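Researcher: Here's a chain I'd like modeled. Treat it as a single chain, no partners, no ligands.
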Amino acid sequence: MPEGKLTFVEKEDVETQVFNWGRLSWLSEPRVTAAERFSTGLVVLEPGKGHDRHNHPYSEEILYVVSGTGLQTVELPGKVEEREVGPGTLVHIPTALYHSTVNNGDVPMELIAIYAPFGPEAELRELDGVAIEPPVRVAES
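Model: Modeled as a single isolated chain. C-alpha cells:
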C-alpha cells in the first residue's frame, strides 16, 4: 500500500467539490486510495438541482441512488432513455454517452458515482465555479 493512501475512508476525510448544482466528495481516487482502475464519490443534489447534459469521453459511469428521487436521462445509441429513479436504482452509463441527473424531489438526493477508469473527478476539480472545501479532519492511513 503506498504511503499516505487510505483503506477506510469517511466523507470527513476528503475534500468536497461544491458546485451551484451539488456537492461531490470523492471517497476513492488516486489522491485518496490505492485504487488503480476506478474512482468513487458521494454526490448530493439539492431539490430542483442537478447536473446538465454532459459526457465522459474516456470513462464509463455507475450511479447508485442512496436516497431521494430524480430524473435520469441517458442518451443511448438511437434513443434517449429518461426515467425517474429512487433509492436502490443503479444506472450504468457507457463510455462517452451523454447523460444528466436532476433532483425532482423535496429532499436532497444522494448518489454514489463510480468512474472507470478514474479521471473525470480530477477534471471536475478544475472547472470554473467549483469551490473546494478541505477535509473536516485529517484521516489516518
